[in-house]
Amino acid sequence: MSSALISINHLRFGFHDRPLYSDLNFTLAQGSLTSLIGANGVGKTTLVRLIMGELQPVGGTITRMPGLRLGYVPQFRNIDSEYPLTIRSFVQLNQHGLWPWHTRAEKQALDAVLKQTELTERQHQLIGQASGGEKQKAYLAQALLTAPNFLILDEATASLDVNTKTELMSLVRQLNRNSGLTVLFITHDLQLAREYTDQYLLLTPDDYELKPTSAMDMAKMPPELQPAEEVQ
Amino acid sequence: MFAYEFMQNAFMASTFIAITCGLVGVFVSARGMSFLSHTLSEVGFAGAAFAVFAGISPLVGMLLFTIVSSIAVGKLSVKASRREASISAVSSLFVGLGILFLSLSDSSSSYATTILFGSIVGISRGDVWQLVGLAGAVLVTLCFGFRSLAFDSFDPDGARAQGLPRNLLSIYFLLILAVSVSIGAQIVGSLLVFILLTLPSAAAKYLGHTLPAMLAISVGAALIGVWLGLYLGYITNWPVTFFIAAIEFGFYFIALGIRRLRD
């Protein structure tokens, strides 16, 4: 069995009058592909902030494997149609060398990440005028540039159409399978979670469960997460 | 034209100032701080008036006031939604102070005009070296934090996700901006220094699609503006500031037109 990248033991956390978790226990193994699901306000993003170390637990421990390099793709980005940079320049922002100019090694690393995220052909397109899917790929590419071994995607598919969602998730799964990248994918979309991730962590107001997605029972999922019924 | 020492001084000083303002301006525009740069110009006016009152160099007065007020604005406006109100509050206080110091110091109204509208042809060789030194200091400082500042300016959400020290970067940039305003005010005057900080970079935003391209266009537009402005001022005897303003406006207008045509 592969070793644990993140271990959460007896985690307790809440904001003032609003307790979120009283005793949360789970581990994420190296190379796992997990979706984090739950209704709005149940504490998905808060859990991510705890894992990232932005918030400190009230009780319990979060153990991170030594050598953990975390990449996070936030949910919101402020990129309007007049945003000046190309996809390539935007992705490149996450290279942190000392000097303003980029070295050859940095350019090569950038080329590799653009290839990996299937953006090579579109790299000179203005990101403000790119499609929703291309934007998400660029956000993903930017996070990949620091060579993380653990990637957290926050609602990355929320604003995408079905085909683009599928394409992005295939890419994420490919990164997981080929490069051994551990992925935590926050989503509302049960179908997507079941189809593209190996296990799910479901948070509910007073409980949680971590199970393989093959054991997901749609009927038992919280009603807020049920896919909208198709209108005849 | 270059036979005159005052024109040599003017060209040397304005070259360095245009390079500094052109580069810093790209970040002003990306961070949505055009309004703050305008405010800092007014604060610079108050600083210069204070300097006259206190009997110190106007440049020192400007630096003192712009640095203190930019840090005050930075501290007061941790939340972006509060920034506009904080900037207005700080600027009202400082313009009021400027008027007070000017009236207390009994200096003539022509001095106020010089502060507000600039006096590039009136600067000495000593002033030039001082400005070159300050511009150089800004450029070196900018060089060291460049990548983090670029990330935080062009993609604040991504920079936050990567755990960049955003408050520190904000103060770092405000200090750079304060010094740039103070030195820029020496040529175009404190009332119009924001021209060099906002218009070349706004034009660059429409024309350049990579960071190096934007920086080059912004610096180029600032340089052409000050050089051509000085030349036209020399041959017509009209105010240099007017020509710089008109040229930079032209660049912005053309850049906007090109962008529309492309879309």
From TrEMBL, chain B:
The chain crosses the membrane at residues 12-33, 45-73, 85-102, 131-151, 171-199, 211-234, 240-258. The keyword Membrane applies. Keywords: Membrane, Transmembrane, Transmembrane helix, Transport. It comes from the Bacteria. InterPro entries: ABC_BtuC-like, ABC_TroCD. This is Cation ABC superfamily ATP binding cassette transporter, membrane protein. SUPFAM superfamilies: ABC transporter involved in vitamin B12 uptake, BtuC. It is a multi-pass membrane protein. Belongs to the ABC-3 integral membrane protein family. GO terms for biological process: response to zinc ion; transmembrane transport. It is found in: Cell membrane; Membrane. The keyword tRNA processing does not apply. GO terms for cellular component: ATP-binding cassette (ABC) transporter complex.
